[in-house]
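Sat 14:20. Reprocessing the chain from the morning session after the first attempt stalled halfway. Input below, unchanged.
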Amino acid sequence: MPLPLPRPRLIGLTLLSAAISAAAPGLAGTVLGQAPGAVPAPAAPVRPSGIQPAVHGGQPSSAQSQEAARAAAERILQALQSRSATALYRLFSPNLQRMTSPALVQQRLRAMAPVRSWTIGQVEPGLDSNTVATRLRSGTGERNLLLVIDADGLLEGFHLDASDQAAEAVARRFVEDLSQGRYVSAQALLSPDLQAEIPADRLQIKWQRLQRLTGNYVAIRRVVRAESTIDSKLVLVTTGFQRLTDSLFVILDSSNRIVGVDFPSEPATGPGGV
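Finished this time. Tokens:
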């Protein structure tokens, strides 16, 4: 009988326990965003001092806010094109800076094709940030990039389109990023709505909790697609740790954005696993 998959939700992270039980009996899952026990709340952002946007009636106008977001996106894309990790890191919000370093940013830049040009498209305003749609052009083609710009014009989050890649490759890269401490890059593979719900520091907490149960990460053993529907894909990333091997559940939508992840809270026992 096919494994039922949840539809992606605009707000929230869902992984049906019945679906997990059907796929792996006895596996008790810890769903990101719904972990048992108290999870430390992410630190409130520390906004750097500086020039504030011009205001009208006490608040920036919509046009001013969108124009400021476009200008911030232009600065970020220029730093991306220059492949300067230090320049790009300086344009990260304080929360984002705490979860990465110029060295990790440089690793990410080396893995990307050099950006030749870009187009800045629609700006979607939010309560305390703006999402800017951009399109990058490189020697390997064109790719959409969403930038989340905070009120100070700093990068709060991003999502690089991976719809042309295999779901298995995206799920593998997600676990690899977590295993190497690249929590900002791992978060970028989540859907934008899920990114707002699960910041990079919470990903770090989840990954570290998992390794307290399993031992330190060793290697990915196997990546397989367990089930697919029009809207969703379930990928199992079988991962080796020091004490055992277990499968992590990754759910992606039709555009290969991750909309659900399940870290086992009671991993399967046995020396080395499968």
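The first strand starts at residue 29 and ends at 31.
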